């Protein structure tokens, strides 16, 4: 009985030893499994972290690419705008260059014209020095001519000469205007020497003033006829006197006066003239 108990105790002891070893091994395996499970969890977590980082970096790259593309698009648009502006500036420059060249040619022409005008002005100043004395000589000659000529509008013509002298002393009248009026006076004197001309006036006869129609054929003959058509006279340039005409010349003179006034068609009429005396 004691042996049996001893054997049983030994068996229990062996069984307890074995169970202890099994339990230890089980704990060790469990521990190893826990460690491995923990390690696997750490690896998986690490892999998840790496993937998240990669995804994050990839997103950053995509965002950077988008931003870069936007910048590229913006720069391209700016470059296109600059190109258009450049072409516009070039076109405007060409237009301005053409216009400036045109204006420069105008300025050159104006400068040439101004230079020419200045030369002319300088020439005019030199010309004045010779023209002014000439104008005084022309006025003196005109006055002398009127005094020696037949007395056609003599008072009127002498008044014209005096006006010419007045404008020569006027600073408000230019030299060119002075010369123009002198030439105009000469032209008027020339007109007196052509055509049939008549006008009314008064003639002193035997100390009396008689209203008459004056008539002259250029400077060939200068006659007068009373308004009652009863008397007529002719001017004698040599004696500076008026001489009465015979009755036979009264009617032809009346016709000549009417022809000068366009009241009668031109026709041949018989009028007296003073012939120049032949030299002995």
From TrEMBL:
Residues 100-127 form a coiled coil. Keywords: Coiled coil. The keyword Coiled coil applies. This is DUF3450 domain-containing protein.
């Amino acid at each position: 009985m004691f042996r049996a108990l001893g054997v049983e105790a030994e068996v229990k002891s062996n069984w307890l030893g074995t169970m202890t070893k099994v339990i230890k091994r089980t704990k060790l395996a469990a521990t190893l499994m826990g460690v491995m499970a923990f390690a696997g969890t750490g690896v998986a977590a690490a892999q998840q972290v790496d993937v998240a980082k990669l995804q994050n970096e990839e997103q950053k790259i995509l965002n950077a690419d988008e931003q870069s593309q936007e910048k590229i698009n913006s720069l391209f648009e700016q470059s296109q705008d600059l190109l258009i502006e450049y072409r516009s500036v070039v076109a405007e420059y060409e237009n301005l260059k053409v216009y400036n060249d045109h204006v420069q040619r105008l300025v050159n022409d104006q400068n040439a014209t101004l230079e020419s005008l200045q030369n002319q002005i300088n020439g005019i100043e030199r010309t004045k020095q010779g023209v002014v004395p000439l104008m005084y000589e022309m006025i003196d000659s005109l006055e002398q001519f009127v005094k020696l000529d037949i007395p056609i509008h003599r008072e009127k013509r002498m008044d014209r000469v005096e006006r010419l002298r007045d404008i020569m002393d006027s600073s408000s009248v230019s030299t060119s205007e002075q010369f123009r009026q002198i030439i105009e006076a000469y032209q008027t004197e020339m007109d007196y020497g052509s055509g049939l001309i008549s006008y009314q006036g008064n003639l002193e006869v035997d100390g009396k003033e008689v209203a008459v129609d004056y008539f002259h054929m250029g400077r060939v003959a200068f006659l007068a006829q009373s308004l009652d058509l009863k008397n007529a006279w002719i001017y004698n340039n040599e004696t500076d006197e008026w001489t009465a005409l015979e009755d036979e010349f009264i009617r032809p003179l009346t016709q000549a006066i009417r022809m000068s006034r366009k009241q009668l068609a031109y026709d041949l009429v018989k009028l007296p003239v003073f012939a120049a005396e032949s030299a002995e």
